[in-house]
Amino acid sequence: MDEVEVVVAHSERATLRVGDVFLKVDADQARMDAEVEVMSLAPVPTPEILWREPPALAIAALPGTTLGRLGGPSTGSPAAWAAAGATIRELHEAPLPSRQGRAGQDIAALKAELDRECELLVSGGLLPSDLVNRNREVAEAALRPWNPAFTHGDLQITHVFLEDDEVTGVIDWSEAGRGDALYDVATFTLGHKERLDDLLAGYGTDVDLDVIRAWWSVRSLLVTRWLAEHGFDPFAPGCEVDVLKARM
Q: What residue stretches are annotated with the Aminoglycoside phosphotransferase domain (predicted)?
């Protein structure tokens, strides 16, 4: 019998793997409903839904591998990165879903959240003030009006699978909806800035690089404390804190 592998688990949700089946357990039924709906709308490959029995969702494993992980080496050929970029562009140019996603947060609300988080990072002694303040300055470039796109909202490098330089599927759609396209581009290349040009070869170069760099700072500032409090290590080499240090 296959072993049960805990892929990720925290107080909000957990993902388990048994053989070729992933079992997602989510305490928020509305979030699971939204994930299933947006997967049906996405114009890019998504995993097959095997069955659904709240609070669980079973999906089939995808063939292929990812292009790396945050904190680890980036893998794959330039052609594979370009293929990922082309798939992301296809998503962003699709008809808009009705739901607002994580990448579509109101600018004023995002500014307020970012300022609160920066204060907590410093007051709690997690990060030095000069590091936080510098990245808050860089982050400002992302806090501008944007044209809505169909976004994934949590497009980590581990959420896109490829085989023979072709995308076989994109997973974890719980944060998807209308949002800023460059948020997705920045999330996918977080910690792998050396592969940004390869990605843009497929995505297109009509992007503002300062905004992508700004989103690297925004995402790292917003998640560092949460990760540290939930058993993850944002201080590991190549992870969020190193991303912040690269802006100094």
A: 20-205
Helix, strand, coil proportions of the chain in percent (round to 5)? 45, 20, 35
CATH number for the domain including 205?
A: 3.90.1200.10
Average pLDDT over residues 28-39: 90
Angle between helices 209-229 and 107-123 (to 10 degrees): 50
Q: Is 21 among the domain residues?
A: no
Answer whether 182's CB lies under 8 Å from 215's CB: yes
1: pLDDT confidence band, cut at 50, 70 and 90?
Answer: low
pTM, two decimals, is 0.93
**Does residue 85 lie in a domain region?**
yes
Average confidence (pLDDT) over 28-47? 92
The residues with which 221 forms a beta bridge, in sequence order, are none
Q: Hey, which bits of 45-182 come out as E strands?
A: 49-53, 56-60, 148-151, 160-163, 166-170, 177-180
